[in-house]
Amino acid sequence: MWSAAEGGHLYQQSTRPLTLSYGLADSPAGLPAWLVEKYRASSDCGGDLSSRFSDDFLLTQVSLYWFTRTVSTSFRPCYEYAQGLTRRGERVDVPTAVALFPADLTRPPRSRTERTYNVTRYTRMPRGGHFAAHEEPELLAHDLTESFRTHR
Question: Which range in 81-85, 139-143, 146-150 is most confidently predicted, on average pLDDT?
């Protein structure tokens, strides 16, 4: 089960985000280790991170968090939701397209998604993960194009 093998960070972020963020924000080795591990675990790379992300890309991501000191604020949505500080939104009636990538963090069934959204397109992608825009830009662009085509 994914949550047991890979979901520990979500529990940590939803219960004790500051403990984690202080360590990462202050460690030039800890932050890249944390982020690279998250990219490996949440992408469709089969354990080979370099098959999806260049070193330059990963260093850019680390630099964005490091120089802006924003790793702690990136944990905030997880914490706020878990603590009941963020309410679930009302139903979204705007036509909504959903693209599910097999290595993403969640893959809700259409029936669950339709409870909250007016789902007009629901696509199960053949590959890709949480970072689909970088991993599978052509698949994502094609799905977006087809999605908007029906609204012209």
Answer: 139-143
Residues 104 and 110 sit within 8 Å (Cβ to Cβ) = no
Please give the single-letter amino acid code of residue 85: L
Dist. CA 24–CA 30, nearest whole Å: 5
What tens digit of pLDDT does each residue of 65-85 get? 999 999 999 988 888 888 888
* 32 to 27, 39, 81, 83, 138: CA distances (angstroms): 9, 10, 26, 28, 28
| CA atoms within a 13 Å half-sphere pointing along the CA-CB vector of 25 | 14
Reported pTM? 0.82
**Residue type present at position 81:** Y
Burial class (CB in 10 A: 0-12, 13-18, 19+), 81: middle
Alpha helices (H) along the chain? 2-6, 8-15, 17-25, 30-41, 55-68, 71-82, 110-114, 132-135, 137-149
Largest separation between any pair of C-alpha atoms in the chain: 50
Task: Give the start-to-end residue ranges of the domains of the chain.
Answer: 2-82, 92-149
